[in-house]
Write a structure and sequence with these properties.
The structure holds 3 protein chains of 3 kinds.
Chain A lengths: L10 H6 L1 H19 L5 H15 L1 H6 L16 H24 L7 H18 L3 H19 L6 H34 L10 H4 L3 H18 L7 H8 L2 H25 L5 H23 L4 H25 L4 H30 L17 H4 L1 H15 L5 H15 L3 H26 L16 H20 L6
Helix pairs in contact in A: 2-3, 2-6, 3-5, 5-6, 5-12, 5-15, 6-7, 6-12, 7-8, 8-10, 8-11, 10-12, 11-12, 11-14, 12-14, 12-15, 13-14, 13-19, 14-15, 14-18, 14-19, 15-17, 15-18, 15-20, 17-19, 17-20, 18-20
Chain B lengths: L3 H22 L4 H25 L32 H21 L6 H20 L3 H9 L2 H11 L4 H30 L4 H10 L4 H18 L8 H8 L2 H26 L1 H27 L4 H21 L3 H32 L10 H4 L1 H14 L6 H16 L1 H26 L5 H5 L9 H19 L2 H13 L9
Helix pairs in contact in B: 1-2, 1-4, 2-3, 2-4, 3-4, 3-11, 3-14, 3-20, 4-5, 4-6, 4-11, 6-7, 7-8, 7-9, 7-10, 9-11, 9-12, 10-11, 10-13, 11-13, 11-14, 12-13, 12-18, 13-14, 13-17, 13-18, 14-16, 14-17, 14-20, 14-21, 16-18, 16-20, 17-18, 17-20
Chain C lengths: L1 H21 L4 H23 L11 E10 L2 E9 L1 H24 L6 H20 L3 H19 L6 H32 L4 H10 L6 H14 L7 H5 L5 H10 L1 H14 L5 H22 L5 H21 L3 H28 L12 H4 L1 H14 L6 H20 L2 H29 L6 H4 L6 H23 L2 E2 L4 E2 L2 E2 H20 L3 H24 L7 H5 L1 H8 L4 H51 L3 H20 L1
Antiparallel strand pairs in C: 1-2, 3-4, 4-5
Helix pairs in contact in C: 1-2, 1-4, 2-3, 2-4, 3-4, 3-10, 3-14, 3-20, 3-21, 4-5, 5-6, 6-8, 8-11, 8-12, 10-14, 11-13, 11-14, 12-13, 12-18, 13-14, 13-17, 13-18, 14-16, 14-17, 14-20, 14-21, 16-18, 16-20, 17-18, 17-20, 17-21, 17-22, 18-22
The chains are: A mainly alpha, B mainly alpha, C mainly alpha.
Chain lengths: ~475, ~500, ~650
């Protein structure tokens, strides 16, 4: 067989993946230190990990000045905004983990942060890749790390049950994507075009085999995002896994899947109209299912999962709008900026809420009920007011960033002419008002209901207040400087 | 200072919000908290009066808006404040009722965690001032939504009986209405290219949208804003909410926030979609009549003081909707006058009825009797408020009702006749309430409960005097509002000026 | 002139405000301020009449100040003064001033004097406003103020139950009348383009056909409501629950007469078409007759006088219905004096007998209260229109004009009207005789009556003055007794009587024109009065402590007492129909709209949510099955 020219990545390529590389190296160093240093240095290591993460924030900012076109044999293209987003999620999760581990000393081991870093690195690659192989590999690496994280609190049965369920369903979806890849590769071979690259998706779409394969890939991505038929696993996994991990799952993995879907739609260029109907049906179903199921849900973490599902629905509405703008790429990139805006608003609100969920005394939060929040405003006014602000943001009440996110999604859907979808969204968000406001109402009720004791925000008070402030002010300032969208 | 008025207008919106945030964040002592609340409410009230007085000679002839803050700072989507003939009375109403609600709360000794109560009230009154002052329709919508969460929390914590279900019902209902209105706003934005009201007016006058498009957008705005104002089929949230809300929030919500829906119809929907407004006038008039007659009859069947006041405020909104349905300068001007007068009188009624129920801790009017002999000052204010509500001349409400009825006659004499029935219905339930509460003798069941018959304290009299003074001032000098209204409504082509 | 009118209008208002704000605890101060303002208004009026100041009063004056302008609707606050309003304003100010004096005496033992005198002043302000207003809408505004002041004064004794019900009933019935009145005004503004009397006059003079009957009838609702005519007369008799000076001033002399004044004002400018006048004639003459009958069924002094007021208002209304606005005003003026007098007599009697109001418990007061009795005699003779008394000239003028009209156009309407008016004239002596005989003659029937003694000077002085006017009031008008250089005409300033004497002279000319039958008719009316008086003496002469008709024919007495079952019909409507509808609607609103629709939707949503929630808590393999299903769905959609 002819000699296969093995090309070595150039210096520029390495520069473009500097953030991911730094993450993986820190993880490795941490592991080594963990072995060398005595046990009691544990806390020091965890602190080092968090500081490392914060330092790494600078890398994507620096990378910003990097070139615009693809790197690493044009399999990755620079997406610094998402890298910043992923790192922010990782930092918040690790801060939450400190608070979580203070409740149960045995769990507080440095490996948690290593796995977390590797997962974040693979997530960044997953979002940046424009080659299906790289996408699949980073997706699988990310998912496996998440299995480990969700099974972290070994002693609590729900955590293990959650991990096992996540493993089975994750495995099935991974297998599905792989099969899709095989079909796409086969389609590529038959017509001598390498369909692995997103760039040539456009001309791949007219071959039946390619479409068949692409459907499987999309199904896998929708599974990760939590769209309608594939979201059943979410409530169990969120309830079971430790709170920091649930938060990470809720925000980071959903965001990654959303970004990849968008990139795929954008790379289909003119052919994306075909997917508009399918996407709109799934979007509508997800919004309805997500919101109406949450109406009667009283378990807090399952409620957050379902609210995540409804937000996935809104993201899918945005994706449908992007798909229908096939002929006008400038509007599609506007959709992408709206997506990022929405994800950031969603991140602030959800992390704000999970910090409060994380501050209960018992170590196993999976049975936390709405009634445990009775009279929270008396116990700790800061927690209850930040909780109110963040819930209002998820519900879409104006001054908060969540409202602006929804407004932009509705605007985009309206530009795209999806009037009935906007109607479904209105009905969904009206229903969502109910379960968010029931929570606010119980937080401000005076009689003590549940048996779980709220143990005060403690160290995380400053982060929570910062998040609430961000929710309030982010929307107002960023929105008024977004003329590009209109 | 060159732009003094523009800064004053921005300050009157920013100060209450800032004081609210300060109260919420910093743990101030009780005295400092009361001082901050007072400052946060007096400044906007005085500013609004000052702007009212200075309005006539600062009105820009082309845009119709005075004190446009685009002179100070500009940003495509930054909030832009300005006042015109329609928004000025509402702005003053928000200032006065906000101050009255604040003064009443300051006078109360028994509000626990007063700091939180005052913070929520300040945020709400700041939102209301912003809603009426902003020219940018998106900001107008957003400031109005500022009031939703504070009212919800206030009802949950300090509300009356049945507050939990009422709070939830209000939240879901108002958000549904608001979302429908938002969709309407977005459609306006898409067709006109900007959220700024002045640009929308220009682009719509240059290229008016087709009648079909107008008829597609208008119902969203009509029924969305109708829900906020408790138009007939969407009114069921209003009575329970006002009865269950704590006094200051009931005053602000029933007195001012309820008028926002009408204000937005008058300021945004009618000038931009005149053709649709004409087509929908029939439906609107029919629903408004249901409001006046059906809910008027329901008010007669009420025995609870607060429910009676709530239902009466819902039924009086019917008159304002008739004014809008008449599509004439006289009718729309009458609607604004009615909103101003009704806002003040219903706020006063809520304050007094809450004071009465707190003293006698009895809500049934039939049991209360002979209150006049024990609380004469309270009786004077209550009777004055009832007389203003039923439209006795000398108060602003009379001018509103008169103009609306005069205008709606051209629309159809039958509608005017049925609308005028409201005069009799309101007289019946108003005077019946006064007869039950103040005359005759108290029921023996009430005497056993040894009610506290202590007359209004000075902290409670000042807000009452404030509200009555405003009512009588506009009642005797209606020209202060109508001059502004004539210019702005006259300039809108859609309104028929001569309807004789 | 304009300054004087403004002063007369706003002085009582200032007095009322002063009392309300500063004198709530100082009864004496309140009295002084209130009576002072009434005196000042009277003095200003006389000053205006006698033209002492610049330029004598010249026939017509009108001036306006801009008040309200919105769109093309302009409403100016205008004051106008012509001979008609001169007559009315004199009655209002003069009788009002006398009643202010009387109420000082009557209210001496009352605790809420400031509120009473404040209310009186506010009433004087609103009554002067009605007289001075130069357009329909301004009259409507003061109409409401008058309704409110009567509401406030009826509810003076707020503790007792019937005052509470009466005040509410009075205001609501007035509001029903005002409802029609407002609709009439709106129609007039739309059809004629203006509500100003002068402009309407010129418009209708040019084209009389523009005044429509329906519009006139609507405006007449205001008259029916305020002057308590047929459908809306139920409130006047209940209004007696208020203090007697209030009944005298408001429910006898001035407020109820405001309706007649308005009809005369509109009639003069040609606003009232023949159809409207016909309806007015029928309604008012019918009430004149029925009220006389019902008066026989009452035992309470003030109720009897109230029904006699209804009767006389009916007479004035029929005079308006016959188009004789001057004669109506003439009777209004005379009636104001003797009816106010009669009420003050009743007041002083009640005050003397420590609030005993049942006629048949009194008796023999002639000896105990000589001045009141003497005044009561004059008023009674005047009201039953004994020749040469004031009542004779005005009431018989109406009777003769009815006869002349029957002779002139001999249609059934004028015949029926004549019969009803004649019957009313016949009934007046019967119930007034019953009133006088049982109170002042015979022996006292109860301890309170025997303990009675003459009232104080405050109360007897107005009685004497009113008696003087009841005796000689009409001479000036009838015979034109000009003195003091033409400034005074009989007991009245000549300016006040100009409108009335012109009309009286004109009515005399009609009578001559109607041929010889007139003299015989006049003679038999006088005989009829005497016969009625004798009948009254025969039936009720020697008072026996109870109404003889009640003992002999209880059924008839019951029918009379029930005054035509109007009240029962209205109460039935309110309790059974209106209240039931209201309760039904409120339950419907709660049940249907709230429970079924809203709770229903939320229950459906929650049920759907609950169902799907159960799906989530299943085993892992069911999730995989959902994934496969999902992929199949994608394919179906893509292929479709």
């Amino acid at each position: 067989m002819e000699n296969v020219s093995v090309s070595i990545p150039s210096a520029a390529d390495w520069l473009s993946v500097s953030a991911e590389a730094a993450l993986v190296c820190t993880a490795a160093v941490l592991l080594v230190l963990k072995v060398l240093l005595p046990a009691r240095a544990e806390k020091f290591l965890n602190a080092l990990a968090v500081l490392g993460l914060c330092a790494m924030l600078a890398l994507p900012l620096a990378g910003l000045s990097g070139e615009k076109e693809a790197s690493f044999f044009n399999m990755l293209f620079p997406l610094p905004s998402f890298e910043l987003f992923a790192l922010a999620c990782a930092i918040f999760t690790s801060l939450m983990a400190f608070r979580y581990f203070s409740k149960d000393k045995a769990l507080a081991r440095a490996e948690f942060f290593c796995v977390l870093m590797i997962c974040t690195a693979s997530m960044m690659l997953f979002a940046r890749s424009i080659n299906l192989f790289v996408t699949f590999v980073s997706l699988e690496c990310m998912t496996i790390c998440m299995y480990i994280l969700s099974a972290w609190s070994r002693r609590s049965a729900p955590s293990l049950e959650a991990a096992v369920k996540f493993l089975i369903v994750g495995g099935v979806s991974g297998a599905m994507i792989l099969m899709g890849l095989a079909f796409i590769y086969g389609a590529g071979l038959s017509c001598g075009e390498d369909f692995m690259y997103y760039a040539n998706f456009a001309d791949g779409l007219n071959s039946k085999l390619f479409c068949f394969g692409l459907v499987f890939v999309f199904a896998g991505l929708l599974f990760k995002l939590g769209a309608f038929p594939f979201q059943f696993w979410m409530p169990d996994v969120y309830q079971g896994s430790p709170t920091p991990v649930s938060a990470f799952l809720a925000v980071a993995s959903k965001a990654a899947a959303a970004v990849v879907i968008f990139i795929m739609i954008m790379s289909m260029r003119t052919y994306s109209e075909k997917f508009v109907l399918a996407l709109s049906v799934f979007a509508a179903a997800t919004v309805i299912i997500g919101n109406f199921t949450a109406l009667t849900q009283s378990n807090i973490k399952r409620l957050m999962a379902l609210s995540g599902v409804s937000n996935a629905g809104y993201i899918l509405v945005l994706a449908t709008a992007a798909a229908s703008f096939a002929l006008d790429p400038e509007r599609q990139s506007a959709c992408f900026t709206v997506l990022l805006f929405y994800l950031v608003a969603y991140m602030f609100a959800t992390y704000g809420i999970f910090f409060v969920v994380n501050s209960f005394a018992e170590e196993d939060d999976s049975y936390q009920n709405m009634l445990d929040y009775c009279g929270l405003s008396k116990i700790s006014p800061a927690a209850s007011s930040t909780l109110t602000i963040n819930l209002a943001s998820l519900a879409g009440i104006p001054p908060t960033a969540g409202f602006f996110g929804k407004l932009l999604v509705i605007l985009m859907a309206w530009f795209a002419g999806l009037y009935w979808l906007v109607g479904v969204m209105i009905v969904g968000s009206a229903a969502s008002i109910y379960y968010y406001f029931v929570w606010i109402r119980t937080a401000h009720a005076e009689k003590k209901g549940g048996e779980m004791v709220f143990a005060g925000l403690g160290g995380s008070a400053s982060t929570v207040v910062a998040l609430a402030g961000a929710t309030l002010l982010f929307g107002v300032f960023i929105f008024s400087s977004l003329p590009a969208v209109f | 200072m060159q732009y003094f008025y523009e800064y004053l207008l921005t300050a009157s919106v920013a100060v209450p919000l800032a004081c609210g945030c300060i109260l919420a964040v910093f743990p101030l002592s009780n005295k400092a908290a009361r001082l901050a609340t007072l400052a946060g409410l007096i400044i906007p009230a005085l500013a609004s009066l000052f702007l009212w007085e200075a309005f006539s000679d600062f009105r820009a002839p082309d845009t119709g808006f005075a004190f446009l803050t685009s002179a100070i700072y500009s940003g495509d989507l930054m909030p832009l404040f300005g006042l015109n003939g329609i928004s000025l009375p509402m702005f003053v109403l928000a200032g006065i009722v906000g101050l009255a609600a604040g003064l009443w709360a300051l006078g109360q000794k028994n509000i626990e965690s007063f700091r939180m109560y005052a913070a929520l009230m300040l945020i709400m009154s700041g939102g209301l001032m912003g809603a009426f002052a902003s020219v940018n329709t998106l900001w107008m919508y957003m400031f109005h939504e500022f009031a939703l969460v504070p009212t919800f929390i206030a009802m949950c914590v300090w509300g009356g009986q049945g507050r939990r279900t009422a709070a939830m019902e209000m939240a879901v209902y108002l958000t549904l209405g608001a979302l429908a209105a938002l969709v309407g706003l977005i459609m306006l934005f898409i067709n006109s290219g900007s959220f700024n009201l002045i640009d929308m007016m220009q682009s719509f006058s240059a290229m008016p949208p087709s009648a079909a498009l107008q008829n597609f957008i208008f119902p969203f705005l009509l029924f969305g804003l109708g829900t906020l104002v408790s138009l007939f089929p969407f009114h069921s949230w209003a009575p329970r909410t006002y009865a269950a809300a704590p006094t200051s929030f009931a005053m602000l919500h029933a007195g001012v926030l309820k008028k926002f829906g009408l204000y937005m119809l008058l300021q945004v929907a009618l000038p931009l979609l005149p053709a649709a407004a004409k087509d929908w006038a029939g439906v609107l008039a029919a629903l408004a009549l249901c409001n006046v007659v059906v809910i008027g009859l329901i008010t007669m069947a009420q025995r609870d003081v607060k429910m009676m006041v709530s239902y009466s405020s819902v039924s009086h909104m019917g008159i304002c909707f008739l004014g809008i349905a008449s599509m004439s300068v006289l009718g729309a001007g009458g609607a604004v006058l009615m909103m101003f007068g009704h806002g003040l009188s219903v706020a006063l009624l809520f304050m007094l009825s809450n004071a009465l129920v707190n003293r006698l801790n009895q809500w049934n009017m039939l049991w209360m009797g002979g209150v006049y002999s024990k609380m004469p000052v309270f009786a004077c204010f209550f009777v004055a408020a009832i007389l203003a509500t039923i439209g006795l001349p000398g108060f602003a409400n009379f001018w509103g009702e008169l103009s609306v009825l005069l205008a709606i006659w051209k629309f159809s004499p039958v509608v005017c006749a049925v609308g005028a029935l409201g005069l009799i219905i309101s007289a019946i339930y108003g005077l019946r309430a006064v007869a039950w509460i103040f005359m005759g003798k108290p029921d023996k069941r009430l005497i056993e409960a040894e009610p506290v018959y202590e007359d209004l304290t000075w902290q409670e009299r000042i807000p009452a005097i404030l509200l009555i003074a405003a009512l009588v001032f506009v009642g005797v000098f209606p020209d202060s509002i109508t001059s502004g209204l004539n210019d702005v409504l006259g300039s809108i082509g859609a309104y028929a000026t001569n309807i004789k | 002139m304009y300054g004087l009118m403004n002063f007369m209008l706003f002085c009582p208002l200032a007095a009322a405000a002063l009392i309300l704000l500063f004198m709530r605890k100082r009864p004496v101060g309140a009295q002084i301020v209130s009576v002072g303002s009434a005196a000042a208004c009277l003095a200003a009026l006389l000053y205006m009449f006698f033209g002492l100041g610049e330029g004598a009063w010249s026939g017509y004056f009108s001036a306006a100040a801009p008040l309200f302008k919105l769109g093309d609707f302009v409403f100016d606050f205008g004051l106008s003064f012509d001979s008609l309003s001169a007559d009315m304003i004199f009655v209002v100010c003069f009788v009002g001033f006398l009643i202010h004096i009387f109420s000082i005496g009557y209210m001496d033992d009352d605790t809420a004097k400031p509120r009473f005198f404040g209310g009186l002043s506010f009433f004087m302000f609103s009554m002067t406003g009605i007289v001075f207003s130069n357009n329909l809408l301004e009259m409507f505004v003061f109409w409401e103020f008058v309704g409110f002041s009567s509401y406030m004064l009826i509810a003076h004794y707020s503790a007792n139950a019937d005052a509470r019900a009466a005040s509410k009933k009075a205001f609501i019935t007035n509001r029903v009348g005002d409802f029609g009145f407002l609709l009439g005004i709106i129609w007039c503004w739309h059809s004629l383009g203006t509500v100003d009397f002068a402009e309407i006059k010129t418009l209708l003079a040019a084209d009389p056909s523009r005044a429509s009957t329906a519009m006139g009838l609507l405006v007449m609702c205001g008259f029916l409501g305020k002057s308590a005519q047929i459908p809306l007369q139920v409130w006047l008799t209940d209004a007696m629950a208020g203090p007697t000076p209030v009944s005298a001033l408001i429910h006898a002399a001035t407020m109820v007469a405001a309706g007649v004044f308005m009809m005369c004002r509109l009639g003069q400018i040609g606003f009232l078409t023949s159809g409207v006048l016909g309806v007015a004639l029928v309604l008012c003459s019918l009430l004149a007759f029925l009220a006389g009958l019902w008066a026989l069924g009452q035992t309470d002094i003030k109720k009897t006088l109230a029904y006699s007021t209804l009767a006389h208002l009916g007479l004035m209304g029929s005079a308006v219905g016959m188009g004789l606005f001057g004669v109506a005003m003439f009777h209004l003026t005379m009636h104001a004096f003797f009816k106010a007098g009669l009420f003050l007599v009743a007041g002083s009697v009640i005050h003397a007998c420590s609030h005993e109001q049942d006629m048949f418990k009194l008796g023999g007061l002639l000896k105990k209260m000589p001045i009141t009795a003497f005044a009561a005699l004059i008023f009674t003779l005047s009201i039953i229109s004994v020749p040469y008394f004031a009542g004779f000239y005005s009431k018989d003028a109406i009777l003769n004009c009815a006869f002349a009209r029957n002779v002139a156009n001999a249609d059934t309407l004028s015949l029926v009207a004549l019969i009803l008016i004649a019957a009313a004239a016949f009934l007046t002596p019967v119930y007034m005789g019953r009133f006088f005989f049982n109170i002042f003659l015979g022996s006292p029937q109860s301890a309170k009556a025997s303990a009675a003694k003459e009232s104080s000077a405050w109360m007897t002085l107005p009685l004497v003055v009113l008696a003087l006017f009841a005796l000689g009031g009409a001479w000036g008008v009838a015979y034109g007794l000009g003195w003091a250089g033409g400034l005074m005409n009989g007991l009245f300033p000549s300016a006040a009587t100009e409108f009335v004497s012109a009309a009286y002279a004109q009515s005399l000319k009609i009578l001559e024109a109607s041929g010889s039958g007139m003299h015989t008719f006049e003679i038999c009316t006088v005989c009829m009065t005497i016969v009625a008086l004798l009948l009254s003496w025969a039936v009720y002469g020697r008072n026996r402590g109870a109404d003889p008709v009640e003992k002999k024919f209880p059924a008839i007495f019951g029918a009379l007492r029930a005054h035509g079952w109007f009240d029962d019909v209205y109460n039935y409507y309110i309790e059974k129909i209106q209240q039931r509808i209201a309760a039904l609607l409120s339950v419907l609103d709660l049940l249907v709209l709230h429970q079924i629709i809203i709770r229903g939707i939320s229950a459906v949503a929650a049920g759907f949510g609950e169902g799907v929630k159960r799906l989530h808590a299943a085993r892992a393999y069911s999730y995989t099955r959902w994934i496969m299903a999902g992929i199949v769905i994608i394919f179906i959609i893509l292929i479709a």
